Amino acid sequence: MTFLSKTLSRVKPSPTIAISTQAAELRAAGRDIIGLSAGEPDFDTPAHIRAAGIRAIEAGHTRYTAVDGIPELKEAICAKFARDNGLSYTPRQVSVGTGGKQVLYNALMATLNPGDEVIIPAPYWVSYPDMVALAGGTPVIVEATLETGFKLTAEALEAAITPRTKWLLFNSPSNPTGAGYGHSELRALTDVLLRHPHVHVMTDDMYEHIAYSGFHFCTPAQVEPGLYDRTLTVNGVSKAYAMTGWRIGYAAGPEALIGAMRKIQSQSTSNPCSISQYAALEALSGPQDVIAEGVAIFQRRRDLVVDALNAIPGITCPRPEGAFYVYPSIHGLIGRKTPQGRVIDSDEAFASALLEDTGVAVVFGAAFGLSPHFRISYAAADDALRQACTRIAAFCASLS
């Protein structure tokens, strides 16, 4: 249609949403579907957080708030960064948005000019390159393969930096791989960044608290204080507190950048939901033991899925350090055929045939920028995960 913006040609719909929609349609048609494509905890929001939302309604906190967050929530976010990350921020350095996605997008819109480059390690969260393109920038994709544990190396980062590089967009623990960068691995990257003062760091720490035994989370500005003035540290309450639908994300960084993000938000959505802000205040300030309870469940599920997938010939599945995803390789299955004669010539073909033949919905690796892989979200009941792995094993065994 000629009246639509040319900008739309630079972006594509979210593959994860598309697959979840397809799975829902098949389920509605009567198929037995096990959906492992959605990236959200299957737990209810903890009771004390839900109660805080109810209290906010009853107290009349249902009107407009400050554009980028109520003062009480900003204070709680500052306290969180001090408590968990050893980072000192003031409320003027904090932005609260409608989910982490809006915060990231605001920052890109506030800083990118045509020709500006953003380094994005692949595998990446599906929205990163499209948000950069929408904001007028150029995504520079740098592969981080199975051989490096799906982690960007210092050498690869150094090689990707040009005079036009504005941001490194960084995610740990990672969606889709669950790979987490330890202190020494981050130190290698921050040493590179110190040599390139024109490059800023946008770090997506959304899975910070979903970290497993043997892995200690850290964030770039914490590892290298010299990057403090050019780092935007993004986080939120969606994953750790099972609050995906409440839509609250936040970031802290240089005051000038936060002010620019506030200006964009004031002319787009204005304030995040007032009720959700009070629930997020309780999440960050209230009891934190709910996090450990959830992590213990996720770690059990991780081990269940990793062990089951690694028992399947043709699949190699690393054991993630965090998040609630696995990103197995199907290199050993490429070129085989289904009993119906369909050739598995890509991870997209694998995921499509798997859904059609077995009812298991996963996301193909090309959506995340690295093939041949697929992503499973193990934020699902243990029985569903066991059944899904059994179906995947039977499907793979049927290939010739």
From TrEMBL:
Keywords: Aminotransferase, Pyridoxal phosphate, Transferase. Its EC number is 2.6.1.-. Belongs to the class-I pyridoxal-phosphate-dependent aminotransferase family. Residues 32-392 form the Aminotransferase class I/classII large domain. It comes from the Bacteria. It catalyses: L-aspartate + 2-oxoglutarate = oxaloacetate + L-glutamate. This is Aminotransferase. GO terms for molecular function: L-aspartate:2-oxoglutarate aminotransferase activity; pyridoxal phosphate binding. The lineage of its organism: Bacteria, Pseudomonadati, Pseudomonadota, Alphaproteobacteria, Rhodobacterales. It is an enzyme of class 2 (transferase). The keyword Signal does not apply. Its cofactor is pyridoxal 5'-phosphate. Pfam families: Aminotran_1_2 (PF00155). GO terms for biological process: amino acid metabolic process. The keyword RNA-binding does not apply. Homodimer.
